[in-house]
Amino acid sequence: MARAAAASAERKRIDTHLHLWTPDAERYPASKPIPENLNSDRRGTFESFVKLMDETGISQAVVIQPINYGQDYRYLMAAMSAYPTRLKGMFIADPSVPSEDAAAWVRATAASSPGWVGIRFNPYLWPASAEGGMADSTGKAMFAAAGDLGLVIGFMAFKGLKLHVADIEALLQDSPKTKVIIDHWGFFLQPATGEGDRVIDEDSWNALLQLSKYPQVYVKVSALFRAAADAYPWPSLSDRLAVLLKTYSSSRLMWGSDFPFVTDFAEYGPAARAPEAWPVWGDMSEQERDDLFFNTAAGLLSGQCSESR
């Protein structure tokens, strides 16, 4: 037991999914309200989060631009500038960009900071009238440009992966060299709120397994509170992780917290170690454990998360 605790403490960790914001609305105004309970105490600032990283043994983290700031990246860029070797970022695809300008938009946004490692595709930003959904002409141009630059694409299928898997497959087939991350287990538990009555969406789970046939697809074992109907440490996810290990292998899985939302359900440190309490953890090799918490992310995210490896 002591040996296991020591291994846990020494294990390198990258948090591949979180959001940051600040109550300083004068300098960084939000276009959509930030949850007051996750903001007024400054828990979501980059200064507070880096302290949590130090306390928890997180070497690096990937910050996803929160929807609250829209296309205003000043706060996230300030965070990456303050901690350039520890905080990396993903910006948000803007489907309003004309298709003929989409590749140039990706290149210009990526050039705005050396910390960018990917782009998030949020299907709910695309108009319902978009032909092909995320795989419209703008989406295809952005997706291809990301691959050219070595940026990964993260998909946020909040209402269930089954609704968007056709778009994702169309993009994968159009630009097979672009690497993809499916966020939060494919959102197979709906609604993905982390509380209240929820039901398992097996069609979305099966869609996630279906995407394993594409070698460029990876999965975030993230936002555990959204994917589990039980409470911390969310042991109902153990069997699901076992399936993902067989289907994708540990080399295509990575852990993420979904901070600060996770702090409504557990403290950050314990949440970061929750999988270690699951039955499947005892069946995993040290290689698989290290892949989940560090190696996959370090190798995938443009090589930029591997500086301290």
Automatic annotation (TrEMBL):
InterPro entries reported for this sequence: ACMSD, Amidohydro-rel, Metal_Hydrolase
Stored Pfam families: Amidohydro_2 (PF04909)
Coiled-coil segments on the chain, per record: none
UniProt keywords, alphabetically: Decarboxylase, Lyase
Transmembrane segments: none
Keyword presence, Lyase: yes
Family in the record: Belongs to the metallo-dependent hydrolases superfamily.
Protein name, as recorded: Amidohydrolase-related domain-containing protein
